[in-house]
Amino acid sequence: MVTVGNILAAKALGLRGVHVCRTDADIRWVATSELPDPAPFLEGGEVLLTTGLETGAWHDEWDEYIGRLAGAAVSAVGLGVGLTHARMPGELVDACRKHGVNLFEVPRRTTFVAISRHVAHLLQEQESIAAREAFKTQRRLISAAAKSDPAAAVVTALAQAVGGAACLLTPDGRVLTGPVGPRRADFPLDEVAADVRRLQAHGLRSAAAQSRPAMSVSVHPIGLRGRPSTYLATTGPTRLSDGQRHAVTTAVAVLGLVDEQQRSRAATRRHARSRAIELLAGNDSRTARLVLELDAPAPTVTERVRFLRASGSESDRRDALPALEHRGILAAPYADELCAVAPPDKAEALGTGLVDAGLQVGIGGAVSLQDGETGYRTAGLALAQTTPTAGMVVWDRVVDGGPLGLIDPDRATAFAESWLSGLDSEQLETLRCFLRHHGSRLKVAEELGLHRNTVRNRLDAIEALLPGKLDDPQTRVSAWIALQSLHPQ
To answer: Which portions of this protein are annotated as coiled-coil regions (predicted)?
Structure first.
């Protein structure tokens, strides 16, 4: 910016500082006025030049005059002496000291036009310099996008351009890159992460900016379409220059293009991984490995694996996938689920992470890579047993629980109450004993202390109330499941 110090330093103008309390005050333009109250016609940042044509008899009026100019945020007041005032009025000097307004004297030989022309020249020169610097910064940011880690390179170049710090974060506030830059130690990471989490609900339409006594902070969503993939947070001077603002805008645009390229590559990679999972689930591990060899870096696939199948909303599945990819796990959307193929010792930890992300997860049995069909199928059976309160089921535990582990408890109870509804407690106990002894009426009689004829009569009565004969294996299986569901032993 052009400052009051810049014009006072111009020897050709011969300006004399009378009360200069802020040499770094920015100058936006030069205004000339002989009005007794020019404040309503100013926008702030002007140098006001006057000969004091209407102030020849002023004394106390100077205080109100300067007070109004201070309220209008003028950068300085320049009084031309030798016309209305032969020398600088003491009351004017006192008023400027009181209100903190810069004051300088314009000698009779210096025209106001010369001051205006000089300021215009400085502003134009500064604008040209700023444009050149902005162009150089723009080229550096674009060049950074061509490096091996484009996002990190762009963030680093931006931090240097604004003389502060920059950081790239995920939509949930985790740091991806940074903070980097000369002022990275002062980066307010916790507050920025909170801003990111607050903004993510608004998609690409919302950004945040705040100004502090020592720095400015801005947060921008990154992406050209859909939901933001990352957020760019930048700190810099309390008041950014036009060039620094352009640098932030350029970085957001460049990172958006980088993100689009990465999304395209990710979509291709995920399609290939989805195809590899399909091949593994079909027991074609050889072709699956050939497909994965085209993916660099390829995910880790061991000789023994467990399949994980996760269901949930599309957004939850999409958000959970990057964490698996980051850990080198073969994972991709497949058949309206999120499917992963993991080493057996890592499967449950990965499943817990997916449950934390809002998904329900079934983990299949540990199988060799050549028997992926079994692993995929058992993962689906385990997934079918999950509920909102039991978000993860492991196939091994379903097996340990026997066939009843495959039946929904509420449905099993309803089946038992309906199937056994006609039996009293004595008949239920007789039926349970009959099944326990594999249909041996003699052993039922011995255990219950009954005559064999009594046992036969009871069983005939029970059979009459059931939908099948007790010697039919299907009836026995149904009876056992019903009894276990109604009165587990």
So the answer is: none
Question: CA 369 to CA 381: how far, in whole Å?
Answer: 19
What's the CATH architecture for 299-401?
2-Layer Sandwich (3.30)
Tell which residue, 212, 337, 196, has the closest CA to residue 277: 337
Q: What is the mean pLDDT of each run of 10 residues along the chain (489 residues)?
A: 91 95 93 95 95 92 96 96 93 96 95 95 84 80 85 90 90 87 89 86 75 83 81 87 84 88 82 92 90 78 94 90 89 93 94 94 94 93 86 84 64 82 89 88 90 91 89 86 69
Query: Contact, 179 vs 207, CB < 8 A?
Result: no
Q: Is the peptide bond before 343 cis (omega within 30 degrees of 0)?
A: no
DSSP 200: G
Amino acid at 20: V
Strand-pairing partners, residue 230, are 222
Q: What is 406-485's CATH superfamily?
A: PucR C-terminal helix-turn-helix domain (1.10.10.2840)
Q: Distance between CA 372 and CA 282 in Å, rounded?
A: 7
CA dihedral for 404, 408, 410, 416, sign (positive or negative):
negative
Q: Which residue has the tokens 């604008």?
A: 127
- Please say whether the beta carbons of 485 and 411 come within 8 A: no
Tell me the pairing of strands 337-342 and 304-311. Answer: antiparallel
Work out the burial of residue 313: count CB atoms within 10 Å of its CB; fewer than 13 is exposed, 13-18 middle, 19 or more buried: exposed
As a whole number of Å, the CA-based R_g of the chain is 40
**In the chain, where are the structural domains located?**
4-120, 146-261, 299-401, 406-485
Query: Which run of H or E residues covers position 308?
Result: strand 304-311
pTM of the shown model: 0.52
CATH H-level, domain 146-261: superfamily: Dynein light chain 2a, cytoplasmic (3.30.450.30)
Which H or E run contains 290? helix 285-293
**Fold topology of 4-120:** 3.40.1390
Residues 24-30: contacts with CB under 8 Å, at least 24 apart: 25/75, 25/76, 25/102, 26/1, 26/2, 26/75, 27/1, 27/2, 27/3, 27/75, 27/76, 27/119, 27/123, 28/75, 29/119, 29/123, 30/112, 30/115, 30/116, 30/119, 30/120
d(CA 331, CA 299): 9
